[in-house]
Amino acid sequence: MPFDKLDRYTPYALAALRIATAIIFMLHGTQKLFGFPAPPQSGLPPLASLFGVGAVLELGGGLLILLGLFTRPVAFLLAGEMAVAYWTFHAPRALYPVLNGGDAAILYCFVFFLLVFTGPGALSLDGLRKGERYRPAIAG
């Protein structure tokens, strides 16, 4: 099969997914904590609120995921955060995610859940700590 040759790049594709997800996820935290890139419509939440705790998890956890450091436990925590966010804030609005605005929460939940099982892929501090070195196989 022609696509079987792509298997050797799986660790890099996983790293790209992890990094892109983390960067976008961190922006949710910076928005709630610092009003960047724009403040939330409801204003900046108090740090000691559910939204404030979520913002800290989004920024701090997102940074750890970006770096690929403690990826599995952090991803487990963030998957749980996104599940709680969906069922607490989105699901009560409407049955369908496209109507309740919960699409992103569901996708984040499952991407983080995937990282719990796969680990960070290539280009991670977890891999560096374990001495892993990913090298694509020579095409042939």
From TrEMBL:
A Pfam family of this chain: DoxX
Segments traversing the membrane: 9-27, 47-67, 74-92, 104-125
GO CC annotation, single: plasma membrane
InterPro entries: DoxX, DoxX-like_oxidoreductase
Subcellular location: Cell membrane
Stretch forming the signal peptide: none
Keyword line: Cell membrane, Membrane, Transmembrane, Transmembrane helix
Lineage top rank: taxon: Bacteria
Membrane topology annotation: Multi-pass membrane protein
UniProt record similarity statement: Belongs to the DoxX family.
Protein name: DoxX family protein
Organism encoding this protein: Salinarimonas soli
